[in-house]
Amino acid sequence: MPTLDILFFRLGLALFLGFLIGLEREREKEMIFAGMRTFALISLLGATTAFAGEQFVGPWLIVIGFFIVSTFALASHIRNMSAGHIGVTTEVAFLLAYLLGALVYWDMLALAAAMTVVVVLVLTFKPNLKVFLKHVEREDLWAGLEFAIVWVIVLPVLPNQTYGPLNILNPREIWLMVVIVAGLNLAAYVLSQMYGMKRGIGMTGVLGGLISSTAVTFEFARRSQRDDQRLFARLFALAITIASAGMFVRVLVLTLLFNSDLGITLLPSMLAGSAITGLGVGLLWLQTRRQSEPDRDDVSAEKTRSPFALRPALQFGLAFAVVMWLSRAAQVYLDDAGVYLSGILGGLGGLDAVTLSMAKLSRTTVSETVAMRSITLGTATNMLFKGGIVALLGAKEIRRVILPLFILTAAASVAVAFLIR
User: Fold this and answer.
1) pLDDT single digits (tens) 77-116
2) What pTM, to 2 d.p., does this model score?
3) Domain boundaries in the chain?
4) CB 403 within 8 A of CB 383
5) How many angstroms separate the CA atoms of 351 and 248, rounded?
6) Phi and psi for 169 in degrees, rounded to 5?
7) DSSP letters along 114-131, please?
């Protein structure tokens, strides 16, 4: 039997997790049969039943308790149907609350807490999901299906061993990077459809940083040349800068996820880049607040299509493999200078490939300092490349803001990287 303090902790946690679910359901109290107190007590009942069954009666007690709780949920559903409400969301959440209480007693605390967060998020996002469904089209369903194929079908069957010249290419590891980056892009698209791109240019920039800051730069620089959108020049510059600041955060997060030691080494140079772009965001935001620009929501009125498709995913996989092989080959034949060269070249294409390949190689054949500098050179090259896009396609109002800011950002991040020994 658990000690008294452990037992009190588990029962209290079960009560709290049920209360969180009930707190969300309380908003629709007129339509449901259970609120904060009922959900809290039902989770406590699940934990208590699991305790009594384990210590005194037997495992069948938790099953009997589940059937009794299900009877209450079924009675509620029948009553709601007679009143014209056919949904079963609250009833299903009611059953989950009971099971979550049992999980807490069985010491599956992390699983129970994670499931509670997911349940609350699903319940809370109902209005946003309805908005999202209005924008779902056949192409979006195909995008989700393609992602499922890439993740669920293709990934498990790929061999988990290295092949090719220099013995560096692992098909499963390469495809895993494809799945992760494609999933991140698809999640960013779903969020944009749930919350709407019209809710602010800031959201556009943030999502652009998740998807592709280069694509945001190209689109807004091109639009700034239109006669009917020149008034939005500062807003376009703001969106480009926000997306570029997000790029530094994305690179750092990806590195920390796959190689925490390299991520810590990379932290100073990425903070330098994000700090300067963040300062630019603040200054541009203040300028846009002082300037009267009509109909700002129209800046993001165009619908964004899903960023995921099978062909781009395959292209990324190829780019990742090429960058990894070039990085290894450059290291073998050109030493550290070759690794730096691979980072610079990768910055012109996709930073994800550079970041993830360096995160892998720094565990084996490349030092953390060299890998960190290679990634930083990639981000600096990407900033200069976006500056070149603005110089070629952007209006004068954007060029005079973006060019000096991006050049300063690139120089500062590289300087910090090479000052680290």
Assistant:
1) 787 676 666 667 788 888 999 999 999 999 999 889 989 9
2) 0.56
3) 4-124, 131-419
4) no
5) 10
6) -95, 120
7) HHHHHHHHHHHTHHHHHH
